[in-house]
């Protein structure tokens, strides 16, 4: 079992050899501390030349490709590649994350730049549009976004002398950008005749609107504004890759290997040719240059960093070297010295000193190198080549000993035998060649058993055996030197291996995940002394396992840094270090091995702060075998909240169905009933899968949730008020620190979080857009301004909100396993904790992201499931309750103590000023002191402890406690059984609320002449409820099986109950004791009914497709109703007790005669004439209209008719309770709809006098009581509006003008080919060409050829004049409204027509125009605030999808109008370019303040920019 636990040792990154010079530029800088910052692979490196020491930033999950230094030169921004790339801003002193910017770019972040004061950061993406994004990086908030260019952008920079100006350059373009409000507007650079149009690689801004740029030709282009004014030719002889501006001037570096220094006016100072220096070489290419004072940093294409002192420019100091571009595969360690040898596809072999952290030797070979090995005496270095050759060098001087080519395919692996006699060489030819070292590497044997290429091999300690792995995953053994394969397993049993680098074998089974045959582990090396194994895989992860690890799925510790596949990993000769090499990142990492120690010695070894997804259950904190999950927790983790159809899908489904039912209703339909219902009381509390969802409010009321209802319960008056804003199951609830607001999260495709007032039950904010499927945990910050939420998507996304503004502050993936709780730090609003299945994580906000670190358990405990968590008396202290009954005490991220608190899981914990209170599965509430050292008092939840006069009945002793809250001198307790109890600190317990336990509730019956109802559920209980003001449970009985139906006898003395096993009971309605029972069916009893009058007969319907009729008096079955083709759903008796109406699952309406059960055929007209004792049927012409238009998707599960036959109540699969006017003839009747249940409403019943409607929700377990309000005696409420699934002309059509306008579709024209295509730039926006004074002469000669140009000097020429818009006739009134306004005290009128905004002066009749729109203006409004006089907003339609970069884009909604321009009419200037989206069903509301539009109100989604393809698809 030891192999199933992670080792207690640790790796710490000590050194990284290399620098990313290829495909990157401008990524090397001096910091304020005179350290050097750069990156390699996925690691940001801060190198101190004075101390020869490196610090590492490891917050990225993939290759870093861009870097920018803050103006204060302390903070660094780095951008990475990946499917969802992000930008990290981090501190170069502490190498801790300051901010994370995410969710905007795709593919990668190519360029970064800070503005002059360092408040804003600009980034360029690698998407098809090369999107440019401006960030408020501290808040993690995007300020503006625009498509950069259709081709690659290589550099971007803020103009440090002009605020809000940027310059970008790239393939054959340079653009000058203006940031106005939240709009980025580009102007393309005009090359003119001063220079050729070519690719610009780098740039730097200077004073007086000057910009210097480095071109591919080696020239420097000088720009004034947007025009190229001159060219400095021959600045370099090849492309200029880097340009750096500093106080002294400018430094440029190019492909020619030269550094040139220029003064502030770009006059040359000096040239440094690195190729001619001592360290130089032919082909040296400069990729990055940084000039500070008399020091210059230079980064090269071949991964070198030079430091040049200006006055000793011919003696550059080489401070970093690494392999060049090409895969790095070969790695070997010296057997006696701290040296590592590496070989690469760059054809170089290099020797590194692990102590000095330096390259000490290098030798260039003729072929790419794929593997390496050092002889046991350390004299020879063998290299395997990609072309199949073998070269042996002397380590001392790197001279060649021998060169052999016996194979045509690449050599993947080679090793010297422990006695130094043989060299085994494995190749892609599927064979291993054995060479004799002493015989000058003469071939002495060959092993040919493999069917695939050789990947790994190991020698036995006595050099007699060799084991190999091949590409097919097979492990084979050979006898050496003969090379004969050993197939006898007994012979190999006692063999000791000198090394273990094979990935297949019994000893390393545990390095592979369970049920996995994938071949993604590239390298393994065993440390026999430390009994630990290190592995490297295709995902850039180093893992530590125990050795041996025999069982698959062993626990491990993992470390990131390499960006992609790690090709090789080896222990140093003395096991002090681990060396790993990256294939694509061609970097060498040196890790310090820290052996197992006591916790106090290793406290400084905090798990690496990382944004990478390190959430596997096999990661750092898994120190030992994980115990089996408690049955309740296991059951809860298996609950799925995903629906086949969500309520959000309803509009779309209705739209689809409308096409099929266009002519479904030809006659005018009956209007909805005038009567209505109002939710009066709810029995139930959601405790079976929720925790900590029960609180006291400010005024002592109790707030909790059940189904889709937030309930505020007044315990003194026994009344309830409700928040009904949700439309699906509420899964979590938390209360504001001031106890007046509540946040609740629900299930949904795009689930919402509602923050609402407990006093008014009105919503304050609705948050949507970042979770999927549901929200399982929420928590307010201590100041109440922020809210944290956790989703139930696969990544359990964590979102931090500014809930009042509806803004997302930060978002991150939480954990792959379920998260049960989120808690915000009461002392530090940027910190929070999450706890769940096998993890406890500590989070810190960093801009738009969250940095998470797993709790470090050490040797104090084992990785356990955490069910609850709270913060303690300081910001560092946290406490969590585990599934095994322990309380864990944490300081920072370290577990310092565990205390046994309960028998079974600790489900709830509450922090007091001086102590804690906990509740567990054992049904005990425990009070603790402030350090969990002493349990002060316990309260057991037992029937005997109930206070005298407590209403209701406790179902069982010691129920599992799921929620605890304190206040008003009491402890509030919520149980898994759906009960809420109030515990007095002196001991007595009062039962406040009760409901059914987990399991669908189907059975519902109302008493024939008392306000009483009975329910039966899959939770195996039968319950009697008082519907009078006492609202309590009168009786309960546990059943052997769950039940689906029940019915009172006509006299109310007996109660029949149908069970799920095909049996049914008749019990005494008062005592619930058995009177009689029958068991004639095998399947569920679905409905049961006493005949009217004396109740002589009992009809029992089952899923066996039969209805049995029993004589109650004789207790015998007297008839069977046969003929149904499917299961029975509903039955009703007629008034005489002679006829049964039956509904089936196949939607059949059948009739049977009692008591024999003979089938009858009755015409539909006759059915209407029959008097029915009850109507619960959902079929027939009388209730045809109750079926919705989406009847194929959802079922109407229940109905019930009032005794006066006026109103029919129904319940359906969507959780809707509807009222129809009876009879409901014709399809798609009008109704009133009420939402409180979350999913299926399984049954509805009116009580005896129709004053109340009782409904039960299946999975939501709730029993709801609705007050019936007669027409004329009620207040109008929003939910009382008449609704229908389809509208017909007879229902009242539109006015003809309105109809025509309603049918206008602007999107069709926007997507069709333009009749009059528009392209180019409007004349008044074009760059004015220099005016020419000459005019070409009138020529009577033949017309000149088109290409012929003549120079007509001396001839007069009239200047070309622009057209100026003078007057516009027209006004757009045909399809627009409210688009004419007075301005300037009535002196002017503002309106629009075509694409022009018009300001018309009433007195003079003159007009002035706003002409920035490029398509029809559809709407106009004027800002009425006195502070913003003459500010107008206009919105247009557009024909170019490329303009969608400024839109709020919501998937699945149709865009009608796009661009909104804010401008000042009097000065004709643009203030703010913003986004306004009119949607089919709703609109976004923006508030305009300080020139920045902000989302306002209900917290609608502010989604990220979509690619053009996605946008086009959405339109189509």
Description:
- The protein has 1516 residues and is mainly beta.
- The chain is built from eight helices and 114 strands.
- Strands 6, 7, 8, 9, 10, 11, 12 and 13 form an eight-stranded antiparallel β-sheet that branches. Strands 58, 59, 60, 61, 62, 63, 64 and 65 form an eight-stranded antiparallel β-sheet that branches. Strands 1-52-51-50 form a four-stranded antiparallel β-sheet, with no helix packed on it.
Number of helices: 8
- Give the CA-CA distance, first to last residue: 58 Å
> What profile does the largest beta sheet have?
8 strands, antiparallel
- Mean pLDDT across the residues is 83
Briefly summarize what is shown.
Helices cover 3% and strands 43% of the residues. With 1516 residues, it is mainly β. The protein starts with 9 loop residues before the first strand and ends with a helix.
């Amino acid at each position: 079992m030891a192999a199933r636990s992670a080792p207690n040792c640790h790796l710490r990154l000590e050194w990284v050899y290399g620098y990313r010079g290829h495909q990157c530029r401008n990524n090397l800088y001096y910091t304020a501390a005179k350290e050097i910052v750069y990156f390699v692979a996925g690691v940001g490196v801060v190198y101190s030349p004075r101390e020869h020491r490196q610090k590492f930033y490891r917050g990225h999950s993939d290759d870093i490709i861009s870097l920018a230094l803050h103006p204060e030169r302390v903070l660094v921004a780095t951008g990475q590649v990946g499917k969802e790339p992000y930008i990290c801003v981090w501190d170069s002193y502490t190498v801790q994350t300051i901010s994370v910017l995410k969710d905007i770019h795709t593919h990668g972040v190519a360029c970064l730049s800070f503005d002059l004061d360092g408040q804003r950061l600009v980034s360029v993406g690698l998407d098809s549009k090369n999107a440019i994004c401006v960030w408020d990086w501290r808040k993690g908030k995007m300020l503006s976004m625009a498509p950069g260019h259709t081709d690659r952008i290589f550099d971007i920079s803020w103009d440090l002398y002009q605020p809000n100006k940027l310059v970008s350059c790239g393939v054959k373009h340079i653009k000058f950008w203006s940031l106005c409000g939240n709009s980025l507007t580009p102007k393309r650079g005009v090359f003119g005749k001063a220079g050729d149009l070519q690719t610009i690689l780098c740039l730097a801004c200077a004073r007086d609107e000057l910009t210097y740029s480095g071109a591919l030709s080696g020239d420097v282009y000088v720009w004034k504004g947007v025009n190229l004014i001159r060219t400095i030719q021959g600045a370099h002889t090849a492309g200029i890759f880097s340009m750096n501006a500093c106080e002294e001037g400018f430094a440029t570096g190019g492909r020619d290997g030269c550094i040139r220094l220029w003064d502030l006016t770009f006059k040359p100072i000096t040239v440094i040719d690195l190729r001619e220096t001592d360290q130089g070489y032919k082909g040296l290419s400069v990729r990055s240059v940084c000039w500070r004072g008399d020091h210059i940093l230079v980064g090269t294409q071949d991964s070198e960093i030079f430091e040049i002192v200006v006055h000793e420019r011919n003696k550059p100091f080489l401070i970093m070297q690494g392999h060049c571009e090409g895969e790095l595969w070969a790695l070997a360690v010296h057997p006696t010295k701290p040296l590592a040898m590496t070989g690469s596809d760059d054809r170089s072999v290099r020797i590194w000193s692990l102590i000095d952290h330096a390259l000490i030797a290098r030798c260039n070979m003729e072929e790419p190198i794929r593997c390496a090995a050092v002889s046991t005496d350390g004299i020879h270095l063998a290299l395997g080549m990609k072309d199949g050759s073998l070269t042996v060098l002397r380590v001392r001087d790197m001279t060649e000993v021998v060169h052999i080519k016996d194979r045509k395919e690449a050599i993947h692996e080679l090793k010297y035998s422990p006695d130094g006699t043989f060299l085994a060489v494995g190749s892609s030819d599927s064979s291993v060649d054995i060479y004799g070292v002493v015989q000058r590497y003469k071939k002495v044997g060959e092993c040919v058993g493999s069917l695939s290429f050789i990947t790994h091999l190991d020698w036995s300690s006595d050099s007699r055996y060799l084991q190999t792995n091949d590409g097919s995953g097979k492990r084979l053994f050979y006898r050496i030197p003969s090379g004969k394969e050993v197939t006898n397993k007994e012979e190999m049993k006692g063999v000791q291996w000198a090394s273990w680098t094979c990935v297949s074998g019994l000893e390393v089974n545990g390095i592979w995940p369970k049920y996995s045959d994938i071949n993604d582990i590239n390298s393994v090396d065993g440390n026999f002394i430390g009994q630990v194994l290190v592995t490297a895989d295709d995902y850039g992860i180093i893992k530590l396992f125990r050795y041996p690890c025999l069982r698959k799925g062993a626990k491990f510790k993992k470390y990131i840094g390499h960006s992609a596949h790690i090709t090789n990993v080896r222990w140093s000769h003395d096991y002090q270090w681990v060396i790993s090499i990256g294939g694509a990142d061609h970097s060498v990492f040196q890790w310090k091995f820290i052996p197992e120690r006591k916790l106090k010695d290793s406290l400084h070894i905090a798990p690496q702060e990382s944004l990478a997804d390190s959430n596997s259950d096999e990661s750092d904190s898994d120190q030992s075998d994980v115990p089996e999950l408690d049955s309740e927790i296991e059951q809860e983790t298996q609950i799925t909240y995903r629906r086949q159809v969500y309520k959000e899908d309803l509009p779309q489904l209705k739209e689809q169905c409308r096409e099929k039912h266009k002519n479904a209703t030809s006659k005018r339909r009956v209007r909805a009933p005038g009567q209505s219902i109002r939710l009066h009381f709810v029995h139930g509390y959601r405790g079976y899968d929720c925790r900590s969802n029960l609180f006291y409010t400010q005024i002592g009321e109790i707030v909790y949730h059940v189904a889709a209802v937030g309930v505020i319960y007044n315990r003194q008056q026994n009344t309830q008020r409700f928040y009904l804003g949700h439309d699906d199951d509420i899964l979590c609830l938390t209360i504001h620190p001031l106890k007046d607001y509540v946040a609740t999260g629900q299930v949904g495709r795009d689930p919402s979080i509602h923050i609402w007032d407990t006093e008014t039950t009105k919503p304050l904010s609705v948050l949507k857009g970042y979770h999927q499927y549901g929200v399982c945990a929420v928590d307010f910050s201590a100041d109440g301004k922020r809210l944290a939420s956790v989703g139930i998507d696969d990544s359990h996304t964590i979102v931090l909100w500014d809930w009042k503004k509806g803004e997302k502050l930060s978002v991150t993936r939480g954990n792959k396993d379920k998260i049960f709780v989120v808690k915000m730090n009461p002392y530090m609003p940027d910190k929070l904790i999450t706890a769940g299945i096998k993890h406890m994580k500590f989070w810190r906000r960093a801009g738009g992201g969250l940095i998470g670190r797993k709790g470090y358990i050490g040797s104090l405990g084992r990785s356990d499931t955490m069910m609850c968590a709270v913060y303690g008396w300081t910001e560092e202290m946290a406490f969590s309750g585990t599934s095994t009954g322990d309380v864990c005490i944490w300081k920072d991220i370290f577990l310092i103590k565990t205390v046994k608190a309960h028998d079974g899981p600790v489900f709830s914990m509450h922090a007091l000023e001086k102590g804690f209170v906990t509740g567990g599965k054992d049904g005990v509430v425990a009070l603790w002191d402030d350090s969990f050292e002493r349990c002060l008092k316990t309260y057991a939840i037992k029937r005997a402890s109930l206070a005298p006069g407590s209403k209701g009945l406790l179902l069982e002793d010691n129920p599992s406690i799921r929620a605890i809250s304190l206040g008003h001198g009491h402890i509030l307790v919520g149980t898994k059984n759906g009960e809420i109890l109030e515990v007095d600190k002196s001991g007595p317990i009062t039962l406040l609320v009760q409901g059914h336990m987990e399991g669908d509730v189907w059975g519902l019956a109302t008493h024939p002449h008392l306000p009483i109802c009975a329910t039966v559920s899959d939770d195996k209980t039968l319950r009697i409820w008082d519907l009078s003001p006492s609202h309590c449970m009168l009786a309960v009985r546990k059943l052997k099986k769950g039940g689906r139906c029940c019915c009172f006898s006509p006299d109310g003395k007996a109660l029949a109950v149908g069970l799920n096993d095909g049996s049914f009971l008749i019990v005494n309605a008062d005592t619930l004791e058995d009177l009689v029972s029958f068991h004639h069916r095998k399947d569920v009893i679905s409905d049961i009914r006493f005949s009217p009058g004396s109740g002589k007969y009992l009809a029992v319907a089952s899923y066996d497709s039969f209805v049995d009729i029993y004589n109650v008096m004789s207790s015998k079955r007297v008839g069977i109703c046969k003929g149904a083709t499917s299961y029975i759903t509903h039955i009703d008796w007629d008034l005489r007790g002679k006829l049964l109406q039956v509904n089936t699952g196949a939607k059949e309406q059948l009739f049977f005669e009692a008591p024999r059960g003979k089938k009858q055929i009755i015409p539909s007209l006759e059915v209407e004439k029959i008097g029915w004792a009850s109507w619960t049927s959902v079929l027939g012409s009388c209730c045809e209209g109750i079926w919705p238009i989406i009847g194929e998707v959802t079922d109407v599960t229940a109905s019930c008719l009032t005794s006066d036959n006026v109103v029919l109540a129904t319940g359906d699969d969507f959780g809707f309770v509807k009222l129809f006017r009876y009879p409901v003839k014709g399809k798609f009747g009008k109704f009133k709809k009420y939402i409180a249940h979350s999913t299926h409403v399984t049954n509805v019943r009116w009580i005896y006098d129709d004053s109340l409607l009782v409904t039960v929700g299946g999975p939501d377990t709730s029993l709801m009581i609705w007050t019936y309000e007669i027409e004329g005696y009620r207040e109008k409420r929003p939910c009382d509006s008449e609704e229908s699934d389809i509208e017909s002309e007879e229902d009242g059509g539109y006015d003809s003008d309105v109809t025509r306008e309603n049918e206008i579709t602007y999107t069709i024209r926007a997507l069709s080919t333009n009749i009059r295509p528009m392209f180019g730039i409007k004349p008044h926006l074009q760059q004015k060409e220099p005016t020419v004074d000459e005019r070409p002469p009138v020529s009577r000669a033949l017309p000149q050829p088109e290409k012929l140009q003549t120079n007509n000097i001396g001839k007069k020429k009239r200047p070309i004049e622009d057209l100026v818009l003078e007057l516009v006739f027209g006004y757009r009134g045909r399809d627009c409204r409210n688009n004419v306004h007075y301005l300037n005290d009535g002196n002017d009128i503002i309106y629009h027509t075509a694409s022009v905004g018009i300001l018309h002066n009433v007195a003079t009749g003159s007009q002035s125009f706003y002409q920035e729109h490029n398509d029809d203006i559809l709407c106009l409004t004027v800002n009425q605030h006195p502070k913003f006089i003459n500010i107008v907003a206009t919105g247009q339609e557009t024909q170019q999808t490329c303009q969608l970069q400024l839109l709020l884009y919501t998937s699945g909604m149709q865009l009608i109008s796009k661009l909104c321009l804010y401008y000042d009419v009097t000065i004709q200037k643009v203030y703010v370019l913003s986004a306004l989206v009119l949607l089919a069903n709703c609109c976004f509301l923006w508030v305009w303040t300080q020139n920045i539009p902000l989302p306002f109100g209900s917290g609608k989604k502010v989604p990220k920019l979509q690619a053009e393809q996605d946008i086009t698809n959405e339109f189509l």
